[in-house]
């Protein structure tokens, strides 16, 4: 189901170029962190990413609907004002329900897949430890090895779970919000976008 974790063998503690960090201690890419993913995990990630895209686009759309709701009060026809307010209020409520559903789906998918990856990493690491000769444990703290793999896989699980989902959701919200701003008032959007780096420096 999964490949054994790679532990350093004799003579493999560092790379031949002497760059400093051993090969087996270098940071893994996001693709490598999902190397133990099964077909079910991949389908769950597809569902989770789809939910993230919808959730990220939700907040800018809520602002658009709320702006249209405020503009409705500028109409002179009382019946038309009432009709638009009821319609837009219903849309606003529907967006809230949709956000609740999609956030639940994305959180469930990302955290479940992350927990499975963490479990398989621990199993592969301990399987690799079991194949080591007894002399390897003479100079190593067995309790330290166990606590180290537990700590690292827990950090991986947290990073691949809801934290990753929230990061992707905020990126989608930024892109969608910028697209909406350019659509409704591209002049103001360009001015605001140019001021964002200055605001970031001030904050």
From TrEMBL:
Q: Where are the annotated segments for Disordered?
A: 1-24
In this chain the ABC transmembrane type-1 domain maps to: 46-203
Q: Give me the Gene Ontology terms describing cellular component.
A: plasma membrane
Q: Where is the composition biased (Low complexity)?
A: 9-20
Q: Which domain of life is it from?
A: Eukaryota
Q: State what protein this is by name.
A: ABC transmembrane type-1 domain-containing protein
Note the Gene3D superfamilies from the entry: ABC transporter type 1, transmembrane domain (1.20.1560.10)
Question: Cross-referenced Pfam families, in alphabetical order?
Answer: ABC_membrane (PF00664)
Keywords in alphabetical order: Membrane, Transmembrane, Transmembrane helix
Query: Per its UniProt record, what InterPro entries does this chain match?
Result: ABC1_TM_dom (IPR011527), ABC1_TM_sf (IPR036640), Type_1_exporter (IPR039421)
PANTHER family registered for this protein in UniProt: ABC TRANSPORTER B FAMILY (PTHR24222), MYCOBACTIN IMPORT ATP-BINDING_PERMEASE PROTEIN IRTB (PTHR24222:SF76)
């Amino acid at each position: 189901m999964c490949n054994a974790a790679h532990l350093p063998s004799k003579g493999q503690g560092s790379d031949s170029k002497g760059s400093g960090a051993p090969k087996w201690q270098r940071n893994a890419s996001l693709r490598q962190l999902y190397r133990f993913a099964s077909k079910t995990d991949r389908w769950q990630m597809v569902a989770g990413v789809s939910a993230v895209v919808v959730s990220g686009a939700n907040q800018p759309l809520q602002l658009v609907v709320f702006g249209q709701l405020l503009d409705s009060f500028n109409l002179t026809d009382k019946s038309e004002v009432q009709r638009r307010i009821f319609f837009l209020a219903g849309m606003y409520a529907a967006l809230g329900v949709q956000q609740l559903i999609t956030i639940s789906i994305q959180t469930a998918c990302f955290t479940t897949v992350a927990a499975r990856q963490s479990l398989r990493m621990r199993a592969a690491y301990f399987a690799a430890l079991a194949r080591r000769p007894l002399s390897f444990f003479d100079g190593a703290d067995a309790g330290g090895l166990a606590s180290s793999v537990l700590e690292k896989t827990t950090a991986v699980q947290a990073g691949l779970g809801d934290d990753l989902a929230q990061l992707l959701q905020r990126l989608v919200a930024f892109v969608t919000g910028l697209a909406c701003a350019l659509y409704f008032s591209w002049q103001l959007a360009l001015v605001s976008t140019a001021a964002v780096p200055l605001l970031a420096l001030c904050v």
